[in-house]
Write a structure and sequence with these properties.
Layout (H helix, E strand, L loop, with lengths): L1 E3 H10 L4 H13 L2 H4 L2 H14 L4 H8 L9 H10 L2 E8 L4 E9 L4 E4 L9 H7 E8 L13 E4 L6 E4 L4 E5 L33 E4 L7 E3 L5 E3 L5 E4 L11 E3 L5 E10 L21 E3 L5 E8 H9 L2 H4 L2 H7 L21 E7 L13 E7 L5 E7 L2 H16 L21 E2 L1 H4 L13 E3 L3 E6 L4 E10 L31 H4 L5 E4 L3 H4 L5 H9 L7 E4 L1 H4 L8 H14 L8 E9 L6 E2 L2 E2 L3 E9 L5 E9 L20 E3 L2 H8 L1 E2 L2 H5 L12
Antiparallel strand pairs: 1-15, 2-3, 2-5, 3-4, 4-8, 5-6, 7-8, 9-10, 9-13, 11-12, 12-16, 13-14, 14-16, 17-18, 18-19, 20-32, 21-22, 22-23, 23-26, 24-25, 26-29, 27-28, 29-30, 30-31
Helix pairs in contact: 4-5
């Protein structure tokens, strides 16, 4: 690969300390801990980031950050291997140079590969085609556990799908075709590396790890001797590393395997005359403004900050509007601990070949569903076989959803805050009779409260839905980025803290005519001291332990008609808390179904036809108030066949006393909530 001289000059201009200065910096770093090296603001950023993404005991990760522990958990190796699967070797014939060119690149989504601008020094897809012939990114070019080299898997780079470069950031993003050249392997089986644009991923003295294909050779890793020596520049990170030739476009990682930078050109060794020299001190002469990267000796390296790249993409309108870039800017694109595995390679392994087998039928019996026999070669090189009726895709999706649910981590969830209103107002307590029907935590048989962020729920094991969901709603600490049209992604899951069998799932809702009706609204959980915390809180509302079956007319907009459940929530929770300050910005909301013995049965489950909402707030005089509502969908369901729904009849909204809700639900609210109930108990509809 030929490097532009002006790119090296830019690196030298920004930061070019002498080898002696680098030694002094490293000695100072070795003598001081992160507590001294980082200012207070950056320390808080680092701690918050580590808490969000670390896949180990958080305390151990903190100790390593501040220098009190140099040990790494064994899963560091496994996570690193999984991340490495997304790194590949870019190969093409350089039409300008008249020879083959190699670099490193990595997937940042299921559709895009990232590398350097100087790898493809053009601005348009048309120009790309005039420079690069037969551009490919190869995966699997690495030694396996037996020291053997498997056949690489090559995917064609497709600039017509997407192409964007930014010379100032030495950045290139190129589309990739979803199936490899053989037509057998899917690109998504390689996973991708998430670009987290939030600051706080790296600290002075941290080790940088780089996965690369030096000079197009087998995949290699530069690890543990690569110290970050400067973080003062806004767009770049400076580190001392063992990167070798052909490493342009490689990802730079921190100890949590987050991508912190895109490796670019650094500062090479020079002789006394100021000329670039190789390892043998022979002068390397530039040709046409470019120099042979294979011969350079790096004294310090330079990586483009991921935060700078993400800011640039989001602030470049013509780029940010593209659907493939909107994926990178969506709140659903995250490397947080609870969702990070979504970007990893699919569980079926590298190579999957499904052979359809048709079995003979017996006269008089219906034909059997075709069987798919799937032979999978996994990361260890050992084959596994599975047999299933129907498509392999269905099996894979089910396996992946189960993995998603199993790996969700709620250890950082504090739940409903009973001091949120600055007085003690706890969740309601179930009666002895109701307790016998609740779902208790599998690892704590005496506990039944499921805690999320700002929310707690209590689940009914027989009805398979929550009996109550309590949420703290705050009018402040909200983020416009979470309300961008099209950015919301509801990924529903069963809570792994209680038995899966006592919860609804998508099989129940499919073709039922029911919505998954949030009890605690996603919008009401979208607050916190950082965007990441607000998004995490919002994502966790999509639990089946926070949802009940609701007909669309009640739950959402349909043909321009907004369901009154939604209208009531908007009036109470958005207009009531928006732009308020102090106590007025805080509201408590308790939601749940009202069960009756005569509730109809659908797919073996009795479905509640009415719901309650208890709202607690401070009025303009600072006095605590409670108002309760009952909302019904009785007139929206068929009277004969429950599966046939009618959406043309208007339901009624009632204001009711809290005592009536307690009588039906079997819940007892706190006396201070009961004492400030303003409901009159009338049957007049609330319009």
């Amino acid at each position: 690969m030929k490097l532009p001289i002006n790119l090296i000059g830019q690196a030298e201009k920004e930061y070019a300390p002498s080898p002696g200065a680098i030694r002094e910096i490293r000695e100072r770093i070795a003598a001081q801990s992160a507590v001294v090296l980082d200012d207070a603001k950056h320390r808080e950023r680092r701690k918050e980031m580590i808490a969000a993404v670390a896949v180990e005991d958080i305390a151990d990760a903190f100790e390593r950050y501040i220098g009190e522990n140099d040990l790494l958990p064994i899963n560091y190796l496994l996570v690193g291997y999984l991340q490495s699967r997304s790194v590949g070797c870019i190969r093409y014939f350089d039409l300008q140079e008249g020879r083959g060119a190699v670099a490193t690149g990595f997937l940042v989504s299921p559709d895009l590969v990232m590398t350097n601008h100087h790898v493809f020094p053009v601005d348009t897809a048309a120009a790309f085609k005039n420079v690069a012939q037969d551009p490919t990114i190869e995966f699997n070019r690495e030694y396996d556990v037996d020291g053997k080299l498997p056949e690489p898997i090559g995917f064609v780079l497709d600039p017509d799908r997407f192409f964007y470069t930014a010379k100032a950031l030495d950045l290139a993003l190129i589309g990739v075709r979803p199936i490899d050249r053989t037509g057998v392997n899917a690109l998504k089986s390689q996973g991708y590396l998430v670009l987290n644009g939030t600051l706080g991923k790296a600290g002075l003295g941290d080790f940088a790890t780089i996965i690369q294909h030096p000079s197009g050779h087998e995949k290699q890793i530069a690890i543990r001797k690569n110290e970050i020596v400067n973080l003062d520049l806004p767009d770049v990170i400076i580190y001392v590393s063992d990167t070798a030739q052909g490493s342009s476009g490689a990802p730079v990682f921190n100890d949590q395997w987050q991508v912190i930078a895109l490796h670019s050109a650094g500062v090479p060794k020079k002789n006394k005359e100021g000329k670039y020299v190789d390892a043998n001190d022979a002068v390397i002469e530039p040709v046409n403004g470019r120099i042979d990267e294979d011969r350079l000796v790096w004294e310090s390296n330079r990586g483009i900050r991921i935060s700078a790249i993400m800011t640039h993409l989001s602030q470049t309108p013509e780029v940010a509007a593209h659907p493939l870039i909107q994926t990178l800017l969506s709140p659903a694109y995250t490397d947080s601990r609870s969702y990070g595995f979504l970007s990893r390679p699919l569980p079926e392994g590298v190579l999957t070949n499904a052979v359809p087998v048709t079995l003979p039928t017996v006269a008089g019996t219906p034909p059997m569903a075709p069987l798919s026999i799937s032979i999978t070669i996994g990361p260890t090189g050992q084959p596994t076989t599975s047999v299933e009726a129907g498509s392999v895709a269905t099996m894979t999706e089910a396996t992946f959803e189960k993995k998603y649910e199993d790996e969700l981590d709620f250890s950082d969830c504090a739940g409903f805050d009973d001091q949120f209103m600055e007085v003690y107002l706890p969740m309601p307590v179930p009666t002895a009779g109701l307790r016998q029907k609740l779902a208790f935590l599998t690892d704590n048989p005496s506990a039944y409260t499921l805690k999320y962020h700002h929310i707690s729920t209590i689940h009914h094991a027989v009805r398979r839905v929550p009996i109550v969901s309590g949420i703290n709603v705050h009018g402040k600490y909200r983020y416009a980025a979470l309300n961008v049209e099209g950015s919301r992604v509801d990924r529903w899951y069963r809570d792994n803290r209680i038995d899966y069998d006592v919860q609804m799932n998508d099989d129940f809702y499919k073709k039922s005519g029911f919505d998954k009706g949030h009890l605690a609204r996603r919008e009401d959980a979208e607050w916190g001291t950082s965007l990441a915390k607000a998004k995490r809180a919002a994502d966790l509302t999509c639990s089946y332990a926070n949802a009940v079956p609701q007909v669309p007319v009640l739950n959402r907009a349909r043909y321009g008609y907004k369901g009154k459940w939604g209208l009531l929530e908007m009036e109470l929770l958005e207009k009531g808390a928006e732009n308020e300050t102090g106590k007025s910005a805080r509201i408590l909301v308790f939601n749940g179904p009202l069960f009756h013995d005569e509730d109809p049965v659908f797919k073996g489950v009795q479905v509640a036809l009415s719901f309650y909402k208890v709202v607690v707030w401070y009025d303009g005089k600072g006095k605590l108030r409670t108002t309760c509502y009952r909302l019904s969908q009785e007139q929206m369901v068929g009277e004969i066949e429950f599966e046939v729904l009618r959406f043309d009849e208007v339901f009624k909204t009632y204001q009711v006393p809290i005592g009536g809700i307690e009588e039906v639900t079997g819940l007892r609210f706190h006396d201070d909530i009961r004492s400030c109930d303003t409901s009159n108990g009338g049957d007049e509809p609330i319009e």
